[in-house]
Amino acid sequence: MTAIRVMLVDDQELLRASLRTVLSVDERIEVTHDVANGRDAIEVVRRHRLDVVLMDIRMPGMDGVAATAEIVRIAPATRVLMLTTFDDDDLVVAAIRAGASGYLTKDVRPTALAQAVCDVASGTSALAPGVAATVLDLVRQAPTRRAGALDGLTPREVEIFGLLARGRSNGEICAELVLSENTVKSHVRSVLQKLGLRDRVHVVIHAYENGLVGRHDLPG
């Protein structure tokens, strides 16, 4: 099995060393680079293939939001996973809009951090438990349903989209719609492709910003 290639981006050298130690325990993960700011991260992404960038938000020079937007632009296959604190909600929303595939808080358990890196690498999302609804609430306080938000989707894909927007896993969708796992995976890929969305967390944001779900429907 090919290891997931990860870069650590944080201006605190001690934290980068700690993260490297934590992630290196997991045989699925290889930490190939670590840098202190967003500008250096972009240069590494230009020169090397990476699967996941574990990105701090507040850094001198170029912050994580600006770096995320550029990384997503130049390396669409590279996933960005943000690390933040609870009082960074506004910046987290901006980072997700810029293309991040999720965020975790810096008090995350080591095993949960490693699993989140693997989840993001596989195309799913990673959101800190209990705060997803709070963060997404900042995206739009009073969403209005927008016409055409699901144009191009088949009726089955609209159904799949609705379940994804409510945080359902592939297994839960299989059970609810009585479909095989391969069929569900195919529909999920098609939904993401047709709507131009990177992953599940962007399905949730698309649904919320377009008034397709309310705050009470959000996962977390």
UniProtKB/TrEMBL annotation:
SUPFAM superfamilies attached to this UniProt entry: C-terminal effector domain of the bipartite response regulators (SSF46894), CheY-like (SSF52172)
PROSITE patterns, sorted: HTH_LUXR_2, RESPONSE_REGULATORY
CDD domains: LuxR_C_like, REC_NarL-like
4-aspartylphosphate found at: 56
Domain called Response regulatory: residue spans: 5-121
One Gene Ontology term from the biological process aspect of the record: regulation of DNA-templated transcription
Superkingdom, natural source: Bacteria
Keywords: DNA-binding, Phosphoprotein, Transcription, Transcription regulation
GO terms for MF: DNA binding
The HTH luxR-type domain, residue ranges: 146-211
Protein name: Two component transcriptional regulator, LuxR family
Protein's organism: Micromonospora rifamycinica
